[in-house]
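Section 5: illustrative case.
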């Protein structure tokens, strides 16, 4: 059971960042995942890169590696090489106040959900009845891909470690988990039930479109796609999932970039929009330009 909980924690981390990274306001910007940060007192440039947490192929190419060569440390949304990351995540997986999934749904829904979970993750609803619904949703993410799952964040971390550079986080995993605590359980369970109802058909279609957009580096198309998504976790909680966190990151990015040239990797959905990281950094006086 402990091993199972650890696996849930791993995938819950992926789900948390995947959903959070998708919510954004549309504002026209160049097609690029990599952005150079300069000016405003910086002696050397830093770089900002849009990541995705469940992909078939990472978009890491020569220009990204060049940016790594020009920087001395990596900042992700959370410190992915923190040995305590999984333990910290596990502490936030369970619902509070004795709430269970079966207490939020009908008996018929419970039967359908149980069959769906046993088919797609190999565990019965009874075994994970106290888990937060979004963490359960994370377990079937690999099934949405027609390939072995990769994570851009993990690849960036591996590159940084190979270069003997430190990895840091713009926030803690507790910060990210707290964001989901603001989303009612009934909203989370609704998304889980929708996936069960279509046996992941809709989820797979959306993932396929998302991967195509990410590969094209069209951050504006990603924003438009997000607005069309039926996932309420992304569409109805923009302020909690995106806006507040972007604003919290700007002082950290500003301070860190002035201290040392840094490679920043955040979910691609955080880049664009008037309240996206790119525009917010520009408002602070930085020059932020696409690297073609």
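Designed sequence:
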């Amino acid at each position: 059971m402990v091993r199972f909980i650890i696996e849930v924690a791993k995938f819950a981390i992926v789900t948390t960042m995947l959903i959070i990274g998708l919510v954004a306001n549309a504002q026209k910007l160049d097609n690029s995942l990599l952005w150079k940060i300069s000016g405003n007192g910086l002696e050397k440039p830093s770089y900002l890169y849009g990541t995705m947490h469940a992909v078939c192929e990472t978009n890491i190419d020569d220009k990204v590696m060049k940016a790594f060569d020009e920087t001395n440390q990596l900042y992700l949304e959370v410190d992915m090489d923190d040995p305590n990351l999984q333990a910290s995540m596990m502490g936030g997986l369970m619902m509070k106040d004795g709430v269970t999934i079966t207490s939020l749904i009908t008996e018929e829904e419970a039967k359908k959900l149980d069959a769906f979970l046993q088919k797609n993750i190999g565990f019965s609803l009874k075994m994970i009845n106290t888990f937060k619904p979004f963490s359960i949703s994370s377990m079937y993410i690999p099934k949405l891909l027609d390939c072995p799952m990769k994570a851009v964040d993990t690849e960036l971390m591996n590159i940084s470690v190979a270069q003997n550079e430190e990895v840091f986080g713009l926030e803690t995993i507790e910060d990210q988990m707290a964001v989901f605590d603001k989303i009612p359980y009934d909203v989370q369970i609704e998304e889980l039930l929708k996936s069960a109802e279509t046996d992941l058909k809709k989820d797979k279609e959306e993932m396929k479109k998302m991967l195509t957009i990410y590969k094209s580096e069209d951050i504006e198309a990603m924003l438009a796609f997000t607005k069309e998504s039926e996932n309420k976790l992304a569409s109805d909680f923009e302020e909690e999932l995106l806006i507040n966190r972007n604003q919290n990151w700007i002082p950290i990015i500003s301070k860190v970039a002035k201290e040392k040239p840094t490679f920043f990797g955040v979910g691609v959905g955080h880049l664009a929009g008037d309240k996206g990281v790119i525009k917010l950094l520009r408002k602070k006086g930085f020059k932020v330009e696409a690297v073609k």
